[in-house]
């Protein structure tokens, strides 16, 4: 009985020692969360690739001097990641450029991030490279010489291009506003039927839940399928770019389609077909909703490569 008590007491002592060690270790190197409570409405990131700025106006984010419309979720996520930073521990303390270079926190490598709320600076960071695991990164805060390891991968976000943060939405209107859509093949395109897939100009007209079509190739007795018509015409309420071209880009490729979406206003969408150096087909677009040209996916072009018969029962 005495032996059993001694063993039990020894086990309890071991468990107590382990608990004390864990408690002390937790106090020595706890995970610390740095939180910005202000409503951040602007962020500036001075990085090797150039200055990236985002400003929130109302419910929308705008990027750079040209006020490109930002992708709301991506912009919000970037700001939120800096509003709450989890520090895993201090790595070192130094203002020596050679030491800071080990973490890409030196001049010319670091990303200097500043958060603002109502025009007032509320927090600043210096972001370095990712750790070997890729799930942490190095940073400094508010001009301090302390170098921390933080949880996350915002180091990668800091180096993303402006285009990656821009909204890809080209057309975004209420489907109920659409009254008619006209699809016209570009007559100046060589073999325009083969390229556009459209035999001749046609228009789908919407009157509430009813649909009709007009055009030279529309059969007089065409029996339209309401579901096909509604799915297609309501789908014209939105259109997205695959990517934005440089602001100065001029599309010299062959135009294949001209689309007009009529409602409270008339929106014009022009689609072009070109080819990469290896001969792969590529497509581009211009739209009255934006001054910027863009690249589009093939399926986004096929959306308009329709003929009246495609909507019959």
Summary?
With about 325 residues, the chain is an alpha+beta fold. Helices cover about 25% and strands about 40% of the residues.
How would you explain this protein's 3D organization?
The chain is an alpha+beta fold and 313 residues long. Helix content is 23%, strand content 40%. It has eight helices and 20 strands. The protein has helices at 2-28, 72-83, 97-100, 154-158, 162-165, 192-196, 226-235, 298-302; strands at 32-35, 42-47, 50-57, 60-63, 68-69, 84-93, 111-117, 120-130, 136-141, 146-151, 169-172, 180-185, 202-207, 210-215, 238-240, 243-244, 254-262, 266-275, 281-287, 290-296. The strands form three sheets. The chain has a ten-stranded antiparallel sheet with strand order 1-6-10-9-8-7-2-3-4-5. The protein has an eight-stranded antiparallel sheet with strand order 14-13-12-17-18-19-20-16. A two-stranded antiparallel sheet has the order 11-15. The protein is elongated. The N and C termini lie far apart (90 Å). Residues 23-28 have low confidence and may be disordered.
pLDDT averaged over residues = 90
Number of E-type strands:
20
The Cα radius of gyration reads 29 Å
Structural class: alpha+beta
Summarize the SSE layout with pairings.
Layout: H1 2-28, E1 32-35, E2 42-47, E3 50-57, E4 60-63, E5 68-69, H2 72-83, E6 84-93, H3 97-100, E7 111-117, E8 120-130, E9 136-141, E10 146-151, H4 154-158, H5 162-165, E11 169-172, E12 180-185, H6 192-196, E13 202-207, E14 210-215, H7 226-235, E15 238-240, E16 243-244, E17 254-262, E18 266-275, E19 281-287, E20 290-296, H8 298-302
Antiparallel strand pairs: 1-6, 2-3, 2-7, 3-4, 4-5, 6-10, 7-8, 8-9, 9-10, 11-15, 12-13, 12-17, 13-14, 16-20, 17-18, 18-19, 19-20
């Amino acid at each position: 009985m005495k032996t059993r008590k001694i063993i039990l007491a020894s086990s309890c002592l071991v468990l107590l020692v382990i608990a004390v060690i864990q408690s002390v270790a937790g106090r020595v190197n706890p995970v610390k969360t740095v939180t910005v409570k202000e409503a951040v409405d602007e962020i500036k990131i001075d990085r090797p690739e150039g200055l990236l700025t985002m400003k929130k106006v109302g419910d929308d984010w705008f990027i750079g001097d040209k006020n490109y419309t930002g992708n709301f979720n991506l912009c919000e996520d970037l700001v939120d990641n800096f509003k709450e930073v989890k520090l895993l521990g201090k790595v070192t303390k130094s203002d020596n450029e050679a030491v800071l270079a080990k973490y890409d926190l030196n001049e010319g490598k670091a990303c200097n991030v500043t958060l603002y709320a109502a025009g007032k600076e509320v927090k600043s960071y210096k972001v370095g490279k990712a750790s070997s695991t890729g799930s942490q990164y190095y940073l400094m805060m508010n001009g301090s010489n302390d170098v921390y390891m933080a949880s996350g991968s915002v180091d990668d976000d800091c180096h993303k291009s402006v285009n990656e943060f821009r909204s890809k939405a080209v057309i975004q209107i209420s489907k109920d506003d659409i009254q008619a859509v006209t699809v016209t093949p570009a007559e100046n395109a060589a073999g325009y039927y083969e390229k556009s897939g459209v035999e001749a100009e046609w228009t789908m007209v919407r009157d509430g839940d009813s649909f009709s079509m007009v055009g030279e190739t529309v059969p007089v007795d065409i029996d339209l399928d309401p579901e096909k018509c509604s799915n297609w015409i309501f789908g014209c309420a939105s259109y997205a770019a695959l990517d934005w071209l440089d602001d100065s880009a001029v599309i010299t490729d062959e135009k294949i389609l001209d689309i007009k979406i009529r409602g409270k206003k008339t929106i014009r969408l022009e689609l072009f077909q070109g080819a990469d150096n290896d001969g792969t087909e590529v497509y581009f677009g211009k739209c009255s909703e934006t001054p910027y040209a863009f690249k589009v996916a093939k399926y986004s072009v096929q959306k308009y490569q329709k003929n009246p018969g495609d909507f019959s029962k």
